[in-house]
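Let us work through a complete example step by step.
Step 1: write down the sequence.
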Amino acid sequence: MAKKALKLIGYPLEHSVSPNMQNAALKVLKLDNEFAYSLEPIKPEELRKKVTELKTTETAGFNVTIPYKEAIIPLLDEVDPTAQLIKAVNTVINKDGRLIGFNTDGPGFIESLKKNRNAPDITGKNVMILGAGGASRAVAVMLAAAGVKSISISEIQAKKAHDLLKHISENFNSVLTTFVEPNSAELQSAIDDAVLLVNTTPVGMTPNIEASPLPENIKLHSNLFVYDLVYNPEETKLLKSAADCKGRASGLEMLIQQGALAFSIWTGKAAPIETMRQAAKAALKLS
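Step 2: predict the structure and record it as C-alpha cells.
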C-alpha cells in the first residue's frame, strides 16, 4: 500500500526542520509505513493549481509556511475558527477531498507557555510584543483569548502595528491595546509594566547573532518572562540579556508544540513530543 503523503508547502524551504520532527514522530509510533513527510516548494504562480492537485492525490495533509499562510485561506473548503481569527493557516488536513485549515502556531505558543514552569500567569496582566508580522498576529490573538489585561506592540512599521491592534480591539474589546514607538521612553515603561515580553521579529537569528530587537539601554526587570520566537541560536542575544529575569524561552518550544498539534490533527494520535524535540535539536545542531 502506498504511503499517504504529508508535506510542507512554501517557498523557499531549504532550512525547514519539519521533516526531521514529523518523520521521527511517525517512526517512533510505527506510523512510518502509513505516512511520510516531505518538503514541496511551490512557486507563487503555482499555488492555486498545486492546492487543487493536493485535494485529489494521496496527500493526507500539509503544513503551510511563508509566504502562503494567508494566501491559502481562499483555496480551502473550511477554516477552523481559531485560524479564522488569526487570519492565517499553517496546517491543513485532507478529509475525503475537502481541505480544512487550522492554525497551530498560536495554540503551540500558548501550550509552550503552559509547559514552562517559570512562565507567569498572564490572566489580567500586561504583555509586550516586539513586531507585528504573521507570528505576532498568532501570538497576540492567543494572548488576548487567554485573558490578558493589555497588549502593547512595538514595530518599526507603525501601520502594521496599528492594524493588528485594531484587529485585537475589534475581537477582544476588554483587552487594552497600545502602540509603542521603538527606541522610545515609552518602550521602557511598557516593559516595566509587563509580565511577559515576546520577540516575534527575526532579529537575532543566525547568522546575525549579535543583534537584539531591543536597544542597549533597555532594562529588563526580574519579574519579567522573556520569550524569543527565534530558535536558531537557541540562546539569542535577547535571551542572554534576560539571564536575571523570572524566566526565558526559545522559539524552539513553540516550533515543537505547533508541530505536535499538526501531527495529532493528521494522525489522530498524541504526538511523541520528546522525540520531536530531539529530532529538531539534532537538525539544528543544538545541544
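Step 3: interpret the result. The CA atoms of residues 144 and 172 lie 7 Å apart.
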